[in-house]
Structures are given as C-alpha cells and as structure tokens.
Amino acid sequence: MSRKVNCLQASAIIVAAGAGIRMNSSVRKQYLLIQNRPVLSHTLSVFENCSAINRIYLVVPRKDFDFVRRKILHFCSDKKDIILVEGGDERQDSVFNGLRALDPETKFVVVHDGVRPLISPQTIETSLAEASVYGACIIGLAAKETVKKVGQDLFVQKTLPRDTVWIAQTPQTFRCDLLRMAHQKAKMESYRGTDDASLVERIGGKVKIVPGNSYNIKITTPEDLALAEIIMGANRLR
To answer: Cα–Cα distance between 32 and 71 in angstroms, integer?
Structure first.
C-alpha cells in the first residue's frame, strides 16, 4: 500500500446496539453464533488483527455490558484496548456516543457494523489510507442489477443509471473532526441520515468510495446468518 496511517491516530467504533428485529430471535443478532462463536466476537477479532487500528470502541446497550465482558470479550486476544460505550436509541445516536468517547488525540475513525464479521484487515487499511488523503472514504459495491426508483405505491418512477449506483457498506472511515462536525450539525437540526457518509455529504464533505467485497454481508436475517456460516467455513478450508 502506498499510503500509511499512523496507527496511534486511528480508532474504530464498532456499532452493536441494535435489537435485530428482522432476525426473529430472542437473542440480539450480534450475539448469535457462527462457527461456535458470537458474530460480534468475529468482527472484533478482525479489528484486533488490523495493524492500522489502535483502539476499539464497542457500542452496545448499557444493560449488556456485563454479558459482553463475559461472553464476547472472552474470545478477544487482549492485543488492543476495547472500550465499552453505551448505545443510543438509534444507530446514529450510537455512533455519536462513540465519537464522544474517543481519545482526543484520535485523528481518524473507522465506523463499522458489529454484524459484518466478514470484513478483512486489508479493507480496513485501504479505507484508512484513502480517508487520510480525501478526509472520508466508504466501502461499497457497484450495482450489478438494473436499479429502479419506486414510489410508496410500489410503482416504478424511473430507472437509475446503473453505472452511477453503488451499494454502501461499512467500514466508513473519516477524519475525526469532519465526522464530529457532521454529527453535531445533524443533532442540532434533528436530522436523521441513512449512514454516516450521508451526514458528511450533507455538510459539503466529499466522500471517496472504493470497491468492497460481496462477502462483506450485514447479518440481519436468518438467511444472512446461514450464508455467513457457509462463507466462513469455506474460507477456513482454503
């Protein structure tokens, strides 16, 4: 890689405070098992093994702190500090709480969904390298299918040019000051974005997108969990 980021300046916010309603399970999706380990523990392991990351801020519900210490962090290697942060009512609130908890010296922050355990250290490092140049970088996939804009009545309004449409993933990586500014403005104006990049775009920030991996799925349904199990098993056989 041509560009490097000082690991002492880069931290990760792992967001894992969601209820996981679509999973139809009494257990939060981030605590369900893949390969006999909780989903969240797999995600944390990737960030522990990424040399570009110094600290990890794990955002979970306050009432889950003890459970996470006993059942999730148990699988971690103690290579890096993992700091628990209380989650908010919605994902945007949870990221904001994570930002407030960051060490003041942090220059870059990587925001990642706790239920994307198939991310790689190389992808994290790429996102940081690009963010160090452009200020903001997200991972995404170019659309492969024809994309339609649809109204609430489920009638097609228009066909979008496929070569300009990407599906956003995480990690999403930013200069800390830029993301803080975007979140603070959104909070003051009671604005809700669909992801962190949309908040940065809203204040005029330019966001670089780099190709991700189709394996980097977000586990939200039982089918996603089964697919992640298959992918992880196949990777171990290589």
So the answer is: 11
Longest dimension (CA), the chain: 52
Type of residue at 57: Y
CA 186/CA 140 separation, integer angstroms: 23
Domains and CATH numbers, the chain: 8-237 (3.90.550.10)
pLDDT of residue 208: 98
Does residue 21 carry a pLDDT above 80?
Answer: no
Across the range 221-230, mean pLDDT stands at: 93
The answer to whether 11 touches 109, Cβ cutoff 8 Å, is yes
Closest to 219 (Cα-Cα) out of 73, 30, 87: 30
b/e burial code for range 25-62 (CB count within 10 A of at least 16 → b): eeebbbbbebeeebbbbbbbbbbbebebbbbbbbbbbe
227 conformational bin, left if phi > 0, alpha if psi -120 to 50, beta if neither: alpha
Q: What's the Cα-to-Cα distance from 28 to each of 67, 185, 226, rounded to whole Å?
A: 12, 31, 16
